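Suppose you are handed only these lines of text.
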Amino acid sequence: MSLLKVEPGQKIKLAEVDPAGTASLTKDAAKAVLAQNVKRMAKLQEVLYAEGKHTLLIVLQAMDAGGKDGTIRSIMSGVNPQGVTVTSFKAPTAEELAHDFLWRVHQAVPARGMIGIFNRSHYEDVLIVRVKNLVPKKVWQTRYQHINNFEQLLVDSGITLLKFYLHISKEEQKERLQARLDEPDKRWKFNPGDLAERARWDDYMHAFEDVFEKCSTKAAPWYIVPADKKWYRNAVISETIVKTMESLEMKYPEPVAGLDKIAIE
Ligand code: ATP
Ligand code: MG
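From them, the structure of the protein bound to magnesium ion can be written out as follows.
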């Protein structure tokens, strides 16, 4: 399986990364990988919770219809809902805008023992905000460094950060948006505003490339996931999460002393 881990400072040309890549994994094999990882994750999440030492924070970014929701649904299908928080970041409210851009994000960072998922994130503040000139350039330009400092703080506090960019082609987005128009059960998802973002596709790709170059750090790397094929996307993301959780070498806490002498009447 292949997904691209961006090295610090690495310049990525998204046009050169195949969104339909599957690294010759078959659909059946990929589904088996996901099923196995869903089970492993259930077990790992239990230890994460019991130990209460680490936090796993998964950041998902993509263009509209890029598959963030589907990824969360598939990959988290086995874990205990009590151990997971999902935060979807929408356009900021008036209250959020009255604070610094990381204020709402920091509040959503989960506690030790938890898995947190960000469906969109603080990266919107250097993506849509930049592409649509929502703040002056001199403001958004400073944010990459603020983001790196913020993420370093999280990592220093025992948080493991995984950042995934779901890379779909413009053609695949067209098909998925068209399906939202054509299929009655999907119409509720259609947002005419998505077409305005689609029209700025190239600007978004450029903004993403800058994010990868500036904000993929040793502490908190970015992964670029070929995501035209949902089954491939799910297999590689679940594999990365499981490998990362295993590397934490988590343990159940020691039981209280003397349990072997307890007799329950
Ligand atoms: P779906 O895939 O179901 O459409 P979504 O994540 O696109 O889900 P929406 O409510 O459609 O959810 O869109 C949220 C919108 O909020 C996105 O267009 C996103 O770019 C925008 N947004 C998020 N954070 C910010 C921010 N900090 N500033 C401005 N806009 C933001
Ligand atoms: Mg949307």
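What can we learn from it? Residues 4-248 form a domain with the Rossmann fold fold (CATH 3.40.50.300). The pocket of adenosine-5'-triphosphate (ligand 1) is lined by residues 64, 69, 88-92, 119-120, 124-125, 128-129, 134, 189, 191 (CB under 6 Å).
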